[in-house]
Structures are given as C-alpha cells and as structure tokens.
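Appendix C reproduces, verbatim, an entry submitted by the partner laboratory led by Prof. M.T., so that reviewers can inspect both the input and the predicted structure.
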Amino acid sequence: MSATFYLDLGSPYVYLAGERLDRLGLTEVEWQPISLGGLFKLTGRSSWGLSPRRELGMAEIEARAAHYGLPPLRWPEGWPGHYLHANRACVAAGERGVLEPYARTALRMAFAEGRDLSQTTEVLEAARRCGLDPVWVAKRTAEQDIKDRLRDATEAAHARGVFGVPTLAIGDRLYWGDDQLELAAAS
C-alpha cells in the first residue's frame, strides 16, 4: 500500500515522526514537502509556536523526544521562522534523488543541533552534507518551477484533506501528528 509523509522542515513534530518511521516499519514511504505557512493560509490556522501555549508545546516535544530515545531537542534561535526556502530545497533535492536524506539532515540540524533553517547558509549546509552542490541548490530554489511545485504540492495536500504536518497518508486514510505513527504502522 502506498504511503506519503507530508512534511515541512520547520516542524519539530515532523522531526519526531521522521526519526521514527523506519523504527515502526514504515519504510516504503514517499516524503512530500509542503509549505505549512501555505497550508495555514488555506485552512485559516496559524502556528501554535506563536501562541500562548508555545512553552507548553515546546516542553511536550522535548518530553516526546526523550521518550523516543532521541537526542535532547535544541531549539533554533527565533523558532518558528520562515522555512519556505528550506522546503523548496527539499523539492530540488528530490530532483537528485536525495529528498529523504536531505530532509532528515536538515531536520536533525534544526532540532538536534539548534540550527536555524530560515537562514540560507543553513539550508545550503544541509545540502552540502547530503552531497548536493550548494550553488546548484541556491540556483534551483530561486527558480519559478521549484516554487510552483512546492505550492502545487501544498494545494494538492490540502485538497486531499491534509491540514497540518506531519501527516502520513496510507491509501485513503490520513494520520496527523507524530503520535499517530503507531496507529498508522498497525493499519
């Protein structure tokens, strides 16, 4: 059965889920970057990271990371930021067949190393770590077709019923949140 993992590199919940997919036997999964900001515009929502529950949410994520046996979470300075460029880099990485390694590397940089993926230098460092030419990535992420593909993927996810990340789609069923992975793996 086909599975799609909808992600945005600015989400610590995506980091938690991405680190656990393989552990739960969810190995045949297509990683699909979308723009959470674009999805928020389509759904009329906004980030909990900008709300009064920010501190509680951050503490919950830190506790989940510890429970899952992941390194202590290190929050990027100024999180949440603007991750459109980083998500466009995912689309470019997909052209070279390294979308999943790029996304995993970038998420680890953000949430295990505390590096700010809203900074172009960090996006390009993730590319370098994955064997991508940073100059090529910088050029591709500025091109209209990459921008269009990310926007189109976001709109298609929304049309499918995705309203947040991470969402794992297995067949016609959507599992939203890293805490739904066990249920998804059992399906």
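The chain is about 50% helix and 10% strand. Additional entries are available on request from the coordinating office.
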